[in-house]
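Researcher: Structure for this, please.
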Amino acid sequence: MGQCGITSSKTVLVFLNLIFWAAAGILCYVGAYVFITYDDYDHFFEDVYTLIPAVVIIAVGTLLFIIGLIGCCATIRESRCGLATFVIILLLVFITEVVVVVLGYVYRAKVESEVDRRIQKVYKTYNGTSPDAASRAIDYVQRQLHCCGIHNYSDWENTDWFKETKNQSVPLSCCRTSASTCNGSLAHPADLYSEGCEALVVKKLQDIMMYVIWAALTFAAIQLLGMLCACIVLCRRSRDPAYELLITGGTYA
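Model: Predicted structure, token format:
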């Protein structure tokens, strides 16, 4: 009965090590996705400390690949030292992922105030030319998120660009994709996106941070199961004489 329990724990442990390798790839992907998205929205959110959870989660993903390798070798070779090292590293990574979750919630709460502070400045510097980074950022966001202005398209009337052009129109990036004849004119508001960009940028950034939080929570739970199985194998190996004989290939006298 004891041997069956140990064998089951070992099987689960080997399976979890394979999951760790898959998790390593997923965590690195999530971290990279945060970096890429931040690059698209960095004009609206200057706080680079928001990237700390992404940096940590990429580091954890890299470490999980090594953990999976150590865990597989330790489980197959029945190494007490290897399994103990495996448990200790898993515990450290588990604590790190808890920190990632906490940081994720902290920075997620800061997104709204940060975007609100920055977006006003970005729209004021818009000049409609491609070489200008702020102008490209605004046009990109309006096309991608299907929005126009800060709260709605009427916000453009308060910008320097609108006053200088004097043509009573907003950027073409405000035009709905279905409006093929749209030229940005305020005389045809039905052709323009009605929703403002601020709320959608905030939602986008907060959703991204939630991806990091859920990824960290999910794999923290898997690591907890991995630690439990490794501890069971270690404890049974120390206390069950039948298991010692199974490992060494010995027989009862």
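Researcher: Any notable elements?
Model: The helical segments are 2-41, 52-77, 80-124, 133-145, 160-165, 197-239, 241-248. The radius of gyration is 27 Å.
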